[in-house]
Amino acid sequence: MDSNINHNKVYIATFFCYTKMDWGLKNRLSRIFNPKSGKTVMLAVDHGYFQGPTTGLKDFKKAVEPLLPYADCLFITRGMLRNCVDANTDVPIFLRVSGGPSILGELSNEDITTSMKEAIRLNAVGVGLSIFVGEKNEDRTISNLGRLVNEAEEYGIPVLAITAVGKEMERDARYLSLACRIAAEMGAHMVKTYYCKEDFKQIVESCPVPIVIAGGKKIPEKEALQMAYDAINEGAAGVDMGRNIFQSDNPVGMIKAIRAIVHEKKSVDEAYKIYEKEKK
Ligand code: 5RP
Fold it and tell me: DSSP character for 125?
């Protein structure tokens, strides 16, 4: 276990130090990935961009504010950032910049919705966009990723490609590695995807940029912790988790428990105790 974790740390450090990267890009990445652990706990609260008032985020400010001290960065849309997050916050902001369809429409019909100028104005450390591999608009969304990387690199802003999120199709290693590798080939600096029980390691090994996992639909807390633990142990560089934190009966306990796994190498049982302690 330890050797895997050390390997991951070296891998992230190598990614930071030896890839030919502009200072600004490197600096932003070092605000996303904790320099000590080499990993990140991103709090995803962008769900409303296609789901509207998602369960757990209806009163956005009330839900998100208590979680901010424990998030390495906040994955959010510009509208919710401007209206619901105090500009005095020191939590790095990772901006979702794609959208278009609602949950009632064709989800793959996304385009870039937020400009690079806006991302800079909002002091974002990164921008994220979804690609829809194997879906109706796969070619356009993949081209959008390429265009976003072209623009973001002009300003030293890392791009997160989000893949397979929200889909009902089977998310096995074959599909996920196809999607993650395409994202990296297009120039994404990081990829968000799902964890899969079989061969997740292969996805990590065939993708040269850090992978963070989305949590997906709400599952029992211990199972969500186990998923985070397995993903980290198999090479993920962190999580970009939403529903399994903000829909928990104890969101603060849950994000603290996730941090303990991602940054402190705690076991699932140790992390679960952290979650339970906070509940009391
Ligand atoms: C929605 C997203 C979310 O940020 C992503 O799904 C992470 O949230 P969750 O852990 O709830 O799946 O990109 O498209």
Answer: E
